[in-house]
Amino acid sequence: MTHPRKRPRQRRQPLDPARRAAFDVLRAVSEKDAYANLALPAILRDRGISGRDAAFATELAYGTCRTKGLLDAVISRAADRPPDRIDAVLLDLLRLGAYQLLRTRVEHHAAVSTTVEQAGIEFDSARAGFVNGVLRTIASRDEQSWVEELAPDASTDPVGHTAFVHAHPRWIAQAFADALGADAGELDALLASDDARPAVHLAARPGVLTAADLATQVGGTVGRYSPYAVYLAGGDPGRLQALREGTALVQDEGSQLVARALTLAELDGEDGGRWLDLCSGPGGKTALLAALAGEGRVTAVEPAPVRADLVEQNTRGLPVEVLRVDGRDPGVETGFDRVLVDAPCTGLGALRRRPEARWRRQPSDVPPLAKLQRELLASAIRLTRPGGVVLYATCSPHLAETVGVVADALRRHPVTALDARPLFFPAGEPVDNLGAGPYVQLWPHRHGTDAMFAAALKVG
Q1: Catalytic residue IDs
Q2: Average of pLDDT values for 249-269?
Q3: Theoretical Cys-Cys bridge with 455: which of 60, 231, 386, 406, CB 3.0 to 4.6 Å?
Q4: Among 239, 449, 453, which residue's Cα sits nearest to residue 352?
Q5: At what angle do helices 88-103 and 17-32 cross, to 10 degrees?
Q6: Is the pLDDT of residue 7 over 60?
Q7: What are residue 229's DSSP bridge partners?
Q8: How many angstroms separate the Cα of 258 from the Cα of each of 327, 391, 392?
Q9: DSSP-derived pairing of the beta strands 297-301 and 274-277
Q10: Domains in the chain and their CATH numbers?
Q11: Which residues form the active site (predicted)?
């Protein structure tokens, strides 16, 4: 569909505010490579959309982004043409309509009519008719029926079948299955959890606000594992007073556990209070480390200017020095007691919080990131004193980014792997199902967190 747009011949009713917001997010993601989780809150605030409309817009925007691959397969079959032969704006409209038909309780006539009306506004009656025909074809069957027709055969390609059902690229599903290892039978549960919209996790700043007090303030629930965690059912966390005042942050509970684990690791000799966060942006873990540092001080390294600004913002009032340098050669004095390497990664473990990311990432992204991770970990080891501890973490379970990187460090550098599992046992309920050790792998379907990996290494 590459014809030039024409002015509509008749006045049509534009999309309601919620659908319009969701559609504009889809366009920003498609046209500008925007992040849906950043674009949507800004649109909702700018347009004063709240309550049920905001919740509906959120479901449509994030849900459509998450299920893009499945939706495109259905649209392609219903339209009898591949997605790349459909105008990009029209394709986003079709995705928005198809998502409502297949994965929401929206009445079919409402999903079809609102989308067709907008197609008439954006294009012309001919294109509106095309949208009408495609969506009515999609509406003639439910999601399960489409899956049975379009998904790979479960008997010959179980991973591909499960990936299609839960709207994941096959290569990502395979990476998850590889990381699960002997527990690969949990892949269906993992992908189902990864395909669901997660709760917002908050972190109360230690020494300033307790999790119980924060939960009372925001109407949330105290977290299961981290002593600082609060679960927020919905709403825009940016509107919360605690976040505006800097007494709390948005931070996945798994990330909180990773930062706390570094502070619990046993050192050889006294802790001199020199801590380093080698990949600190945007500063959530840095803030938690600094709040737990006592008389110590955290050096935060972040080369990206925007992310370095966020580190400064998120650690305001805390004992943190932000250095805008490359962590591979930061030019700082060696001898740190504790070093966190929360390395840049594919982010496969946080896909549920970044709806469009699963369709942007490619297998070719992994090797250069793994190389960077090895270099950053090597730098961290050089900067740590003998008897000090490095905690290496990623928000990806991909084996090339986790055990592969750590195995390389164990071969090349004077480090010993510690059993990281005891470091994840907070004062309350212990974190179970962490695996055989010595490393820790968190999972959304087991722990309700992002799929964080952590390894603790003692230097010398």
Answers
A1: 395
A2: 97
A3: 406
A4: 449
A5: 130
A6: no
A7: 203
A8: 19, 8, 9
A9: parallel
A10: 17-143 (1.10.940.10), 151-195 (no CATH), 251-459 (3.40.50.150)
A11: 395
Instruction: Compute CA distances 376 → 164, 380, 420, whole Å.
Output: 35, 6, 20
pLDDT per residue as tens digits for the range 44-80? 999 999 999 999 999 999 999 999 999 999 999 999 9
Report pTM.
Answer: 0.93
Coil/strand/helix, residue 29: helix
Beta bridge partners of 232: 200
* Residues whose CB falls within 8 Å of the CB of residue 13, separated by 6 or more in sequence, listed in order: 117
Nearest to 208 by CA among 284, 289, 321, 291: 291
Phi (first) and psi of residue 275, to 5 degrees: -115, 150
Residue 345 counted as an annotated binding residue = no
67 SS3 class: coil
Confidence at residue 428, expressed as pLDDT on a 0 to 100 scale: 53
Pairing between strand 440-441 and 229-232? Answer: unpaired
- Is residue 280 part of an annotated ligand binding site? yes
Q: Which two tokens stand for residue 140?
A: 């003639």
pLDDT tens-place string over residues 265-276: 999 999 999 999
Q: What percent of the chain has pLDDT over 90?
A: 91
413 near 455, Cβ under 8 Å?
no
Has 266 been labeled as part of a binding site? no
